[in-house]
Amino acid sequence: MFSLLSACLAVVCLFSLLFGAGEIGPLDSLLILLGKLDGTTAQYAEEAVFVVQELRLPRTLIGLVVGMALGVAGALLQAVARNPLAEPGLLGVSAGSAFAVAVALMLGASAATLRVSVAQLGALAGCLCVLAAARMRGVGNDPVRLVLAGAVLSGLLGALTSMILLVDQRTADEIRFWIVGSLAGRRIEDLHAILPSMALGGVVTVLIARPLAALALGERVAVGLGHHPQLVRLLVIGVVAILVGATTAVAGPIAFIGLVVPFAARALAGPDIRRTLWLCLPLGPLVVISADIVSRLVVQPSELPLGVLTALIGAPVLILVVRSQRLPTL
């Protein structure tokens, strides 16, 4: 299954380089990739090369990283909360990142140097609020109530972020398009800024995958196997904050990826968190890049923000999970 998903991802990545909202069509884009674009003016050839190499290639690579990070973060958050509806966008983690970035920019911080770290701190605060809500009596055991609590947190942080945008015109101008989630206009330098965070999150995820699988069997079983449940939870919080904060910094708050991808991965791999995480690696970017391609084509010559499209995809999945008579076992 992993090989099949990886092959599908490779095809989608190729389509991402070939299709766009501008005048450069798929045939010319393919010729550019093959180095055989002839019979055109020098200006058109230069423009075509710029579109493929400087616009489509960076957003495709960033889509790969963002999809992997959000898919893995969603699976980890659902596992530690023991709730299939625990998703960074639904529970306020992404909103915490966005709010932290807006505050930093309002205070005059440089977006180029501080956005990633500030967004990660905001995501960490959101994660702590999620776990605090999960431990409240009557909330943690009720998936719908947990989502409602997360919606309240997201709404509050979203309202505060909107207030900042209304008060500070400079901040509004800088993050107006970013705040709805998009890969458009991203540069390869943005990818370089988040790669250390992605590497750190990946290493820690590998280390905690086995203890997290044991924790799914119960705390007593995990302790009997030599693991420390509280330490595992703290590490999961840190990893989710790192991954969600970094992706929010580079692409804005993209909702529902952390819900759709783990849901599909569990359907294919079963309840084992290790297999789920493994399948999230190709599934996450497959969903993100596919949605990004559609966002370029549906309203040509303009583009639809990626966050809007992922919300349209994720909302039916959310309804499906909520209406299920029996929620997936985590």
UniProtKB/TrEMBL annotation:
The chain crosses the membrane at residues 60-77, 89-111, 146-167, 234-265, 277-298, 304-322. It comes from the Bacteria. The keyword Membrane applies. It is a multi-pass membrane protein. The keyword Membrane applies. It is found in: Cell membrane. Pfam families: FecCD. InterPro entries: ABC_BtuC-like, ABC_transptr_permease_BtuC. Keywords: Cell membrane, Membrane, Transmembrane, Transmembrane helix, Transport. Belongs to the binding-protein-dependent transport system permease family. FecCD subfamily. This is FecCD family ABC transporter permease.
